[in-house]
Write a structure and sequence with these properties.
The protein is mainly α and 100 residues long. The protein is 57% helix and 0% strand. α2 packs across α4 and α3 crosses α4. The model has no long low-confidence stretch (mean pLDDT 85).
Length: 100
Amino acid sequence: MQQPKYTAEQWDEFKDAFRGLNIGTVELARAVLVDGVRPSDLAKKTGDSRQLVYAAVKRVRGILQQHDAEELVPVMVWLPPELAEKVRQMAAPYDQPKSK
């Protein structure tokens, strides 16, 4: 199955959405989805199983599709405390990147 491809610029737009994922998962998915490496070739090159590579791609594609479907955009602003709480409440229904 041909994977949808993303440009490096598109990938960078989604970086924050990947913060909760293991860096290895993101790197495997990037190699397939941005660099165009075939998953089976990547598995041979890295020594990982094909199942692991496909699972990484599936997990990252799920995040990408969710953000594409919902057309979510990151927002970083400074607000007074009372407005900040309202924004947090508005954001609660959506998956948020985990803090470092």
